[in-house]
Amino acid sequence: MIISVIGEGNARPDIAELAERVGAELARRGVSVVCGGLGGVMEAACRGAKSAGGTTIGILPGNDPNDGNQWVDIPILTGMGYARNVIVVKTGMAAIAVGGAFGTLSEIGHALGDGIPVIGLQTWGLSRNGETDKTIVMASSPADAVDKAIEAAENRVTSLEQQTH
Fold first, then answer.
1. Distance between CA 121 and CA 81 in Å, rounded?
2. Domains within the chain, CATH numbers bracketed
3. Inter-CA distances, 124 with 44, 63, 81, 121, Å
4. pTM of the entire structure?
């Protein structure tokens, strides 16, 4: 299973720590991490995953594999800049948003628009017509985020399998 971890490239230390714990928890459960491959939340999630023996995939914005952080196992070069955000979220069966700037918000929008579950950890909230939109499932901790993301991903896999049969 692959789960996307999304978040800002210039994360505060507390947000980076949450992302590192998310990455480690995913790896402990045998889940590969896909992210944008750069710094901040992306680097912290990869570092966490590698500390627990996991596999990391970095969907990089440019054409140089050396642009990825040092914990990316599989760099995927896109030459697409921010347009790569679609690939980052579509590669995972669910996404965990940790913190986040506007790039993260675009990834959340792409994921939700394509029916990809998004679990939030200190990230964006949504409202629609003045009402709170609970489409982003909020988590209380890194372990809770991983629990919810794996459950959502498993449900999505089951649903996709049922559609193809």
1. 25
2. 2-164 (3.40.50.450)
3. 19, 30, 22, 9
4. 0.96
